[in-house]
Structures are given as structure tokens and as C-alpha cells.
Design a protein that fits this description.
Belongs to the heat shock protein 70 family. It holds the Pfam family HSP70. There is one protein chain. The protein is of the alpha+beta class. It contains twelve helices and 30 strands. The strands form eight sheets. Strands 1, 2, 3, 4, 11 and 12 form a six-stranded mixed β-sheet that branches. The protein starts with a strand and ends with a strand.
Length: 544
């Protein structure tokens, strides 16, 4: 039987992991690195896709046909304010972003080498690369648990499933990233009978994700989610880059952004690639040193021919002053989640930090100052924990795996290999490893659209699967068609359409005739609806 893997499909980096009797990260790319850049480029000459660290490190070779942070576009609308901001930030996102030709009015397209691609197609290239690299080391891969931000809505999840399908992967589960991190941490650290409440603080490269989880043995119950998919390490990079521009402008009495934009394409992309590399390097250096420098000489000049060099030193104090508002925003989101879910901070045993941006010393200091040192736990593997948690669940969902002693396939429930007699699925103490169970909850409020307004049908944080029935009335005499429109709360506080469908009424009914609707939401958040009219059920097809 083919194997199942866990994938952390990240905004900045992606990771693939596998579990049999232990959990391990699968290295990827020609240099066998644990972190694979979520970067996709198109070779101008061949038209082939190139994925990972190699195109990222050759930015000037591929730009503008190079994509980063595509996760931010998954399931997004072209009219989204943040998508429009990405379009203007060409130094960070050199590829084109436009409305998808032939798509809906809100569909987003990524433009590479003059051709449009959907965000799902770009993400599929990353997933396919991870799958292929894992297959080289493990054998055939067909299934995966793929992680997503906890607050991803149905459109974003559907886009992720589509990307997996394009990559040739069957999705066992879409697992919330904080839950994956907690699974990884819990399996390593928690006792069999121990029960704890975790708040997972996942500060990644492109998203900030929060989740409250009740962990008991191998069972994880999602009890609340929050965060901001437009907040992450990319924003820290932008703050530092803006500081570099401001200091250079003051020192040279110029507008360095205008000078950069005036360069021909080749020089501009080369400069932007070098600047991006140095900004990231300085950010990492400032986590371990008191200062860092960003230096680029001989690349820029004014219209009068005067050279403008980038030569800016940044102290850790200056850096922390720049990013403090971003970190304060994460703390505000933590407090909002605690208030929304009714969990006082006293009831939370630990705040678990994961994600690359959580390694920044100021992040840890501000959280310790706010919530106390005893609350804060630092993941030993902040960049790998999410993929490892996904791999643990993928293993738990698999029917078979290879015996690590003899290589023969054995059923996951077998304690002793029938081929070689090796002990399987045992802890160091020889006790049977508990199953990994995740109890899912709704992440958003759901509404049905009525002529009189919107009626909330499902509350956030309801346990899944969930079912509810509501009575509504026909709006006209002899009404023949009923349109169902399901809405969900969006990040900007508005409601967005996430699904719709129709069913017909064969009978001639007077206005205000009763219709009973039953709405179902599965553990995988697939929506179904049925209507009852005089004891006859009619299922309505809903689509995202």
C-alpha cells in the first residue's frame, strides 16, 4: 500500500514529514533541506516550473516570473483590499496579479510569463514537489494530511483540496495548523492520563494563527480559533525594508523607491532580489546580535548620475521598535480569542509558540511580560512541528504501514509484526501508543440569506458533525424555485457568500407555505441541505 505523509503548506516555507514508529522530516530539493521555500518560478526558455529554494535563491534569474506567498491568494477575491495591496508591492511580489479570465467576477489569477494561473495551480506545484521528494525516499505516496490556518473559510479549504488534487494527492484531512502543532507537542510531552488546555500561538511567515485546544491523552478538541491571515513574517520584512528606504532617503535626499522603479526590468529584479535576501538575513541576525547591516553598493543612481548606495545599520532596539506594533496586534488577537471563547487566561495551562516568527526574542519577551513566564512554552522545532503533527495524524488514519525492522506491510492496529516479530506501536515504556483523535469545531458563524435579512443557522465553535433544522416560508404564490445562499463571517467583519444551490417545488403552494430546511456540516466541513415539504424530502446541492 502507498504511504501517507503530513504536509505543512506554508506561506514562506513548506515542510513534509512521515511517521511509522517515529516521526521524521523528509528533506527536499537537491541540497536535502528540511525547509522548502514556497516559491514557484517559470523558466523563460523552457516554460517549465521550478520549485523551492533553488528559484528563490536565483531571484534575479526568474523575476518577475517567480511567485512567493501564494497562500495569501488561496480562495481570495480580486477585490480584497489585501490582494490589491499585494498587486502594488512589486518588490515583494513581482509576479502579476489580476482577475482570472473566464472565472467568476472575483477569481484571482497569477500571471507568469504572460500566462494566467490560478493560485491552486501554483500551490499544486509546491505540493507535487514535496510529494515527489518524499516518494524518492519512502516509495509511492498517494495520501496526505495537509495543514491550513485554523480560520480558513470554506473557499480557502476548497482551494487547498483542489491544489492537492492537481498534485496527485488524496487529502485524508485538512488539519488546522495549531492543532497539528499541538499534536506534535502533545505526543512528545504529555503523559497518558494528563489533560491540559493549550493556546497555540503560531506566528509564521505569512499568517498568524491561534487555536485553543483541550488535550487529553491522544484526543484534541478544537475549542476556538482566531488569527489574521494577513499578518506574519512578510510584514516584519516590509517594516524593516521601509526603514531602510527611509534612512537612505534622508541620507541622500532622494526617493529611493522611485529610483528603483526607474531601473530597467533586469536591473530592478536583480536589485529587489538582493535587497529581499539582505532584509531576511538582517532579521535573522537581529535575533542573535545587537545590530545588523543592509549594504548594496553601486546599483542605484539618480537622473543626474549621482550614486545612491544602500548602507543602513539597524540596532536590535530600532528593529524592535519597528515591529512592536505587529507583535502587540498578535497579543490583542490572543485576548480577543480568550474573550470570545470564554476561556480566562487562568484556565489555559500553556501558550505554545510555533512558527518561524515566534523565534524573534521580542515576541517571546512581550508574551512573557503579558501572560507570565510559566505559561509560555517554546517549541523545540518551531518550523517543523506543524508538518510532524500532520504526519502523526496521517499515520493514525492509514490502514497499513511498513514494519521498520523487515519492511513488510502490516496493519496499523497490529502490536507485533507477523513477519519478523518486531514490536510495533509501542512507547518507550512498552505501553500501547494512544490513537490520535481530533474533535473538530466550526470556525465561523453561518447564515442563510433571506429576503427579510440574514438568519444565523450555525454558531462558531459548534462541535462537528453538526445538524440543525429551521422552518421558513415561501415568498410568493405557486413558488417553483427556492435558492439557498449560505453566508459566513469574513475577516473584515462583513459576510461573504460561501455556498449556494437550488431546489424546485412541484406543487402549487400559496404564499407563506412552510418549508423545513435541515442543514448539515460534516467533520470535513462539507455542507449539505435538504428541504421537507409535506413529508417529502428534497436534497439541495450546495457548491462553493
Amino acid at each position: 500500500m502507498a504511504k501517507a505523509i503530513g504536509i505543512d503548506l506554508g506561506t514562506t516555507n513548506s515542510v513534509v514529514a512521515f511517521k511509522d514508529t517515529s516521526v521524521r522530516t523528509i528533506t527536499t530539493g537537491p541540497d536535502n533541506q528540511e525547509l522548502c521555500r514556497s516559491c514557484v518560478a517559470v523558466d523563460r526558455k523552457t516554460g517549465d516550473f521550478v520549485v523551492g529554494n533553488s528559484p528563490y535563491n536565483s531571484w534575479k534569474k526568474y523575476a518577475p516570473n517567480i511567485v512567493v506567498s501564494v497562500k495569501r491568494l488561496m480562495g481570495a477575491a480580486i477585490s480584497d483590499e489585501q490582494v490589491q495591496k499585494m498587486k502594488t508591492q512589486r518588490s515583494l511580489y513581482p509576479y502579476g496579479i489580476d482577475k482570472l479570465a473566464g472565472g467568476t467576477d472575483e477569481s484571482v489569477a497569477v500571471i507568469l510569463n504572460g500566462k494566467q494561473y490560478t493560485p491552486e495551480q501554483i500551490s499544486a506545484q509546491i505540493l507535487r514537489q514535496l510529494k515527489d521528494d518524499a516518494s524518492v525516499k519512502l516509495g509511492e505516496i498517494t495520501h496526505a494530511v495537509i495543514t491550513v490556518p485554523a480560520y480558513f473559510n470554506e473557499k480557502q479549504k476548497t482551494a487547498t483540496r483542489k491544489a492537492a488534487e492537481l498534485a496527485g494527492l488524496k487529502v485524508q484531512r485538512l488539519l488546522a495548523e495549531p492543532t497539528a502543532a499541538a499534536i506534535s507537542y502533545g505526543v512528545d510531552k504529555m503523559g497518558k492520563d494528563e489533560e491540559k488546555v493549550f493556546l497555540v500561538y503560531d506566528f509564521g511567515g505569512g499568517t498568524f494563527d491561534l487555536s485553543i485546544l483541550v488535550a487529553s491523552g491522544g484526543n484534541f478538541i478544537e475549542s476556538g480559533t482566531g488569527g489574521d491571515r494577513w499578518l506574519g513574517g512578510d510584514d516584519i520584512d516590509k517594516a524593516l525594508m521601509n526603514y531602510v528606504f527611509e534612512q537612505t532617503n534622508k541620507e541622500n535626499d532622494v526617493n529611493v523607491q522611485e529610483i528603483i522603479e526607474a531601473l530597467d526590468n533586469r536591473k530592478r529584479f536583480a536589485f529587489q532580489g538582493e535587497l529581499k535576501k539582505q532584509i531576511e538575513g538582517a532579521k535573522k541576525q537581529l535575533s542573535n546580535s545587537n545590530s545588523a547591516s543592509i549594504e548594496i553598493f553601486g546599483e542605484l543612481e539618480t537622473e543626474d548620475g549621482d550614486m545612491v548606495d544602500i548602507d543602513v545599520s539597524v540596532t536590535r532596539d530600532q528593529f524592535e521598535s519597528l515591529i512592536r506594533p505587529l507583535i502587540q496586534r498578535t497579543i490583542e488577537l490572543v485576548d480577543e480569542l480568550l474573550d470570545k471563547t470564554g476561556y480566562p487566561i487562568e484556565t489555559v495551562d500553556n501558550i505554545l509558540l510555533v512558527g518561524g516568527s515566534s523565534c524573534i526574542p521580542l515576541v517571546r519577551k512581550m508574551l512573557v511580560d503579558k501572560y507570565g513566564e510559566e505559561k509560555i512554552l517554546f517549541s523545540e522545532k518551531p518550523m517543523l512541528a506543524i508538518a510532524e503533527g500532520a504526519a502523526i495524524l496521517a499515520h493514525a488514519l492509514s490502514d497499513e504501514f511498513e514494519c521498520p525492522s523487515c519492511g513488510e506491510m502490516v496493519n496499523k492496529d497490529v502490536d507485533v509484526c507477523p513477519h519478523c516479530g518486531a514490536k510495533l506501536n509501542a512507547t518507550e515504556e512498552g505501553e500501547e501508543e494512544p490513537p490520535i483523535l481530533v474533535t473538530y469545531t466550526t470556525k465561523h458563524n453561518y447564515y442563510i440569506k433571506l429576503e427579510s435579512g440574514n438568519d444565523k443557522i450555525i454558531e462558531a465553535n459548534e462541535l462537528l458533525p453538526f445538524e440543525i433544522s429551521r422552518k421558513y416560508k415561501t415568498s410568493t404564490d405557486n413558488q417553483k424555485i427556492v435558492e439557498l445562499v449560505i453566508l459566513s463571517d469574513a475577516e473584515d467583519g462583513n459576510l461573504e457568500k460561501i455556498a449556494s444551490g437550488f431546489f424546485t417545488i412541484a406543487e402549487n403552494l400559496p404564499v407563506d407555505s412552510n418549508l423545513t430546511f435541515t442543514f448539515n456540516l460534516t467533520e470535513t466541513r462539507i455542507q449539505q441541505a435538504s428541504a421537507k415539504l409535506r413529508n417529502v424530502f428534497v436534497k439541495a446541492l450546495l457548491w462553493c
